[in-house]
Amino acid sequence: MTSVIARTTSWAVLHHHHIKQCWSATRIGAGKQLANIRQSVLPQSSKSTSLLVCPFGTKFSVMGKPKVVFVLGPPGSGKGTQCEKIVKEFGYTHLSAGDLLREERNREGSEYGALIEDNIKNGRIVPVEITCALLENAMNKTIQATGNDRFLIDGFPRNEDNLQGWTKKMADKVEQQFVLFFECSEQQCTERCLKRGESSGRSDDNAESLKKRFNTYINDTVAIIKHYEELQLVKKIDASAGPDAVFEHVKALFGEQK
Question: Is the separation of the CB atoms in 54 and 1 below 8 Å?
């Protein structure tokens, strides 16, 4: 839902406008499908969810659309490490699609835990409805709790289904800033992941899973990067150097953002 409200509008008019829009959305049934996904996939709040009609709550309506940067690259290209540095330097909130899926997989009573684990272990991509619901829920919670509306979405979208699902459910709700693409060779990325696997405890940081993950990346994700290149939204970084050297290039890109 979008809401364009002049900053000089009085609080009373703003409040009335917000309630009117949310009530209209309720009458036409907007968000019912998302609500159903949340009920079946995500942990339920102790409070009633029937009042949460506007997807990103009141703060979303007042602040405008959340700003999103997709972070893509092969497994082991340093996406997570660079996202941590961006968070510290520029104040974005880092949302890892993979981490959110692993959290949902490990959540007691999750209906989709086994499905998520099977996909992750075999290097396949989890159904987009689950991933989008988890991402939207995480953005919503962050905005309501902190007011921060800038997000790094790490490891998504990874294939055509992800892209179409995001476009259908989320594209109109966010402002897409750009796609940060970390480029690195398969050999170097594999060495990094195997080293990480010695202590990470991740079920996919092993040689067999990595081969499948790279096949998925080459067959599916590369096409998504090319799609965004055609839209002139891709900012490419050579990720073969050390983390600090790579971040110097990253800082230059984010320093250009308003």
Answer: yes
Please name the residue that has the structure tokens 């993950």: 213
Q: Would you state the torsion angle of the CA atoms of residues 245, 236, 176, 95, taken in this order, to the nearest 10 degrees?
A: -50
Asked if residues 21 and 54 have their Cβ atoms less than 8 Å apart, the reply is yes
- What tens-digit pLDDT sequence spans the chain (258 residues)? 333 333 333 333 333 444 344 333 433 343 444 444 444 444 443 333 322 233 333 334 445 899 999 999 999 999 999 999 999 999 999 999 889 999 999 999 888 899 999 988 888 889 999 999 899 999 999 999 999 999 999 999 999 999 999 999 999 999 999 999 999 999 999 999 999 999 888 888 999 999 999 999 999 999 999 999 999 999 999 999 999 999 999 999 998 876
Q: What one-letter code names the amino acid at 251?
A: K
Here the tokens at position 42 are 């995500």
